[in-house]
Structure formats: structure tokens, C-alpha cells
## 1
Amino acid sequence: MAYNPDQGNGEASYLKSVTTIYVHITGENEDSPRFLVRSYNFSISESAEMGKSVGKVTAMDKDHGVDGIVYYYLEAQSNLKGFLIEPLTGILRVSSRPDFESSPTVFLSVIAKNWGSVRGNDTDTCLVSISVIDANDPPEFTKAIYYANITENSPPNTFVTNVMAVDYDIRADFKQFKYKIMSGNVPERFQISSTGRIETSGLGVLDRETTSKYTLVVGAEDLNDPTII
């Protein structure tokens, strides 16, 4: 406010100037995140591919703005169990193929952390239990390469070698498979039994001067889910 003494009539007058002040009240990061429930239960097939979503955990923070953002991460050894968590969504995903036979149930400890900072403890923890559903695993050969020798002109049913595959499934109906010569047996000079025994078929004669080496590709075919390895 300003005073003007000269008005010409001997009277003093006041000149006014007005302004507006906006006062914003800034909040403090007062609250830490809290999980909606203390434990979660999910399930996933052991045949699930990497990146497959398992489930989602959720924690809430009463603060507003950036102070209310929650950051999720796995605690310590939980990072080594084949799963990961998206930091800003709480979605759990498969990071390596689960195995029912070795770990039918996986337990994870998930931490929710305050994005900003508060006094004292600004984290909360929940337990996640993931049940791994048994799937039909393919059989696996005990060796990648086999070597064998046989004399030319050998008679039918002459032993060549044995191959072996193992199916680690627990369920009996998932453990059934058969052997099959996939390629390299042209003409059909060899045959394979249900036990993995390879022998001469008797369909023609083995002649070293004609063919000195055969490279046979043998598969183990699951009878319930025909995946050949």
C-alpha cells in the first residue's frame, strides 16, 4: 500500500496494489507399502516356456504421486529358483523351465519396497507358493554318440550295439517310449528292438567296398506325447 500526500485538496489518499500468493502443501513420504495378502498360491505346468506369466502380487502404498510407487523384487535365494518378477507390476514369470520331478513346489519370498524413502523400515514381504504341475517329459539318451564296428557279410540279427534312453517322469504312463531309426539306414540294413538293441536286418548284405560306413540317427519316441529326440 502506498501513501500519496498531494491530492490538491489537502487530503491524503492511499494507492492500493494487490497480488495473489498460492501456497502448495507438499506431502511427506509417510507410509510404506503393504501387501494385500500375506501369501499367494499359484500353479504352473513344468512344460511352461520362458516368460510365461505365473501370477501377480500386489502391495499398496497410501502415499500419493511418486511416493506411492511400489517396487517389487525377489529376496536372496528366491532369485535362483527359476522365476523373476517385474519390478513395477508384481507379475511373476518363468525364467527357466520348472521341473516337477526335482521341485514339485517352489517357494519364493517377494519384497515390496517404497520407491522413495521413509523413516524406518520401508519394505514389506509376502510368501509365494508355486505348485509345479507334472507334464510328460521326453526321454533322454544317456550318450550323445555311439560307435560300433561290424564285419561285412555278417548274417541277419548280428549284434551291432545297444543304445539307451531314460525317461525321468514319475507317472508310469508318461515313462513309455520306443526306439526308432530316424535316418541313415538306406537301404534298410539295420533294425532296432524295443530295448535299444541294434542289429543287422538281413535285408541285403553289408559290403565294405560298396558302403564302408553308416551314420544312423536313432530317436526315442514318447508313446503318450510323440516328441522324438
Note: The radius of gyration is 37 Å.
## 2
Amino acid sequence: AEISPKVLASNTFEVNDGLVGVLGPNGAGKTTAMKLITTLFSIQEGDVFLNGLDYKKDLKEVRKNIGYLPQNFSTYGHLKGREFLEIIGDLKLNENNKGVRRHIDEIIDKLNMGEYIDRKVKEYSGGMMQKLGFAQVLIGDPKLIVVDEPTVGLDPEQRNIIRELFPVISKDRIVLATTHIVEDIEYYCNYLLVIKKGQLIYKGTKENFIKEIEGMLWEDSVDSDTMKKIKETNEVIRTIENGGKYLIRYIGTEPVTSSSVEAKANLQDAYIVHSNMKGN
């Protein structure tokens, strides 16, 4: 599958199967972009294609190929999880009853939900509820899945459970996952889109995203006076106190102190540097 839209401020990108991380701070335009892609907002300018289907000309067919998990997903608490999925299946699929039930059973098995799927939704934990949300987007085997801030409000253990679903659901389809929490997509994403103030400031692989900041991130162990001096001219992105000294990591085109060394960047570091250097 491939999708090629122009989003928000005349930005263009094309992605293929796998997990695509859509990063940006709150209010950057991520949710607006995803609502355009999921057809919840109409396209005012530009074009969007999914597997050759034109969003303007083939809207009905496009919608058959999209699954959407909104932020803060919920449903009726009195329903059992299986009942909810069967209702969604009946609405989405034009098949006989047995076909829908068999399809839903396969999804339940794939996501390891058998232990609690027949309990009432009001008894679900936050992680269970999100898994139910992931299950409903898989109904109909869509070629594009969009998940908006999938781990917001979850504890660390629940977040790990949700992250482990990404390689399961992104096989043979595009999964666009919007988040401002870099850890959510760090290990499994194939491709990154970074949005700031409605502008697409990066599109490409995770590896190139990190490589682009080579020579721009430094670290040193300094006293408090030196740290204050560095903060006057440079953006300090990390500070760890250790025995009266401060291990700091800062952004700069060159080192401020002679003892500074270039830091080995991870995705979180690259995201912070890109956000500071572009689209200010």
C-alpha cells in the first residue's frame, strides 16, 4: 500500500507498508493531518491517494480501506468486548454472520485478548481498552490504519503492551501512529514524519533523522557556573547532577568548552534538535 497526500501547509509525502511515526508537539497539526487522511475532514487543496484510489473521486472505496483509532478511545461499558467487535463487524462488513464472527475470532487470537474479551468493557483496564481499540481497526483488513496518541494516559507497563502491537498490526499495511512521545515508535517505526506548526520539517528514515544532527549535540561534566554560562548561549536538553558536577547535553554547531565531546544521539535527542533548529 502507499499513500501520497498534501497535508496542511502544502506538504507532500509518500509512504509504504510498515509503521510510520508521526511526531510533533501538542498543537502541531498531527491530529488535523490524520483527520484529513481518514476522511473525517474534507480536502480543501491538494490530493491524497491510497493504493491508487483518489480521495476525491473514490471516497467510498477509500473508507473501506481505512481503520482509525482516535485518541481517548472508549465505548459502551455494558457491552462485552466481543459484543462490541461484532457490532463493528456487522456495520463494516457485508458478509454472513458466520464470516464476521470467524474474522473477529482471528483478530482476538492475533492480539491475545482471549482472557478478557467476554468481560464487560467497564471492567477493562486502560491497556485492555486500547487493545480493544486496535482490534476494531483491524476489522475488514484495512490497508491503512491511523492511530492517534495511542499510549496517552497509560502507565509504563500498559504502554509497553501497546507498543508491542505495532509489528503485529503493521504487516502488509501502512500504520500511521501520531505521538509526542518518541519512545512509542522508536523501536518499530520504518519511517518518520515530523510536524511543527503545520509544517512538515522532516520526512525520511529514523536512521537519517539521527544522522542529520551529527556535530550538533555535545556533552560535558561541568560545575554550576559553567552550566549557567552554556545555558546563556545554547539549548541544554539534559542535565544530570552527580556529586556537585552536572552532566549536561546541549545543542550547538561547535563545542562551548574544550572538554566537551560529541554525544551519541538517539531518536529523542534528534527530535529535540530538529524541533529547535527547524520551523521556529
Note: The radius of gyration is 22 Å.
